[in-house]
Each structure stands twice: as C-alpha cells, then as structure tokens.
Amino acid sequence: MFITTILLLLSLLLHVVAFYFIVVLFTKLSSMKSVSDNQRKVLEEAENSMTSFLIEMKDENDRLIEHFRKQDSTNNLPDKEESVRTTDLHMEPIDKSKAKLEHGTSTQDNTDKLPVHLGGIEDVQDIVEIQERSPVTYKTPEEEALSLYEQGLTIEQIAKKLKKGKTEIELLVKFRQNEREF
For the chain, give me the number of helices (H) and strands (E)? Predict the structure, then answer.
C-alpha cells in the first residue's frame, strides 16, 4: 500500500511536470507564430512599397520620355528611332575627322556632318588649370604625435586627434624622452 501511494504521487508529479512543459512549449509556439506573422506582414509591406516605388518610377520615366518627344517635336527633330539612325550614320564622318586631324587637315568641312545636337560644339572652349602641388610629406603616427606634443598639446588632445589610446601616446612620449637622454 505504501509503494502504491508513492507510485501514485510520483505519477501525479510527472503529469504536472509534463503539463508544465506542454504549456511552455505552447507559449513558445504561439510566440513563434506571432513573430512569423509579423515578418510576413513586414515582407508584404516592403513588397508593396517596392511595387509602388517601381510604378512611380515607371510613370516618371514615361513623363520624361513624353517631355523629350514634345521637345523634339518642337525643335523639328526626327523621332527617337530616326535620331538614333542619324547619330549612327554620323559616327563614321566624326571618326574620319579624327583621322584627318592626325594627318594635319582641317575639320571645318566636317562640322556640317555633326549631329544636330552637337552643332555648337565648336563654340565650346576648353579651360584646363594645372596647379603644381607642393610635395606632401607623410608622417608616421608616432612622428605626428611627437610633433603635436612638442607644439604643446596635452596627451589627451593628441590621443583624440590621432584616434589612439591615451596610454599609447604616453608610452610613445616616454620612450622618445628616454632615447634623447641616452
């Protein structure tokens, strides 16, 4: 009878522990489901925002193309396909003009062969400024730290300026002072 009571209590205790673990696992499962649902919502929102962004970009590109077509039609330029063909046709004379330049001939007669949008290219002046740079001397971080120390900066200021540790700068200065004594 005593053994039966102990076995019953042990069984009851094991059932309670099992139910406890079942409840813990159920709460973890429900929290994982909620996290999964949140991630799915965030993914859907990101997808929707990217879709709307792409649609907006497409509309803006369409408006830009329409603007260029209107501008081309007001300038009496051929439509896009014809202008591409004419630019391709004018590529060869431009290359020939480069060859004539190499042989010393003039390109004045070739300006008539340039595409319409490059007609005023002869009016553009090239301005190039060349400046001599003074030779740059690079200092090692140790040399720079020592020169800053000699200028009167504190170790903390030097460490902040060089983005180094304060103790590293202190050791560097002490070693340099020891070398000067010997």
Answer: 5, 0
Contact 167, 159 (CB under 8 A): no
pLDDT score for 93: 43
Give me the half-sphere count of Cα atoms (radius 13 Å) on the Cβ side of residue 43. Answer: 6
Q: Taking each helix axis from N to C terminus, what angle separates 166-181 and 155-162, rounded to the nearest 10 degrees?
A: 120
Q: What is the pLDDT of residues 27-38, one digit of tens each?
A: 999 999 999 999
Its pTM stands at: 0.31
Q: What are 53's two structure tokens? A: 């962004």
SS (H, E, C) 73-140: HHCCCCCHHHHHHHHHHHHHHHHHHHHHHHCCCCCHHHHHHCCHHHHHHHHCCCCCCCCCCCCCCCCC
| Alpha carbons 37 and 44: distance in angstroms, whole number | 10
Encode pLDDT of 7-24 as tens digits.
999 999 999 999 999 999
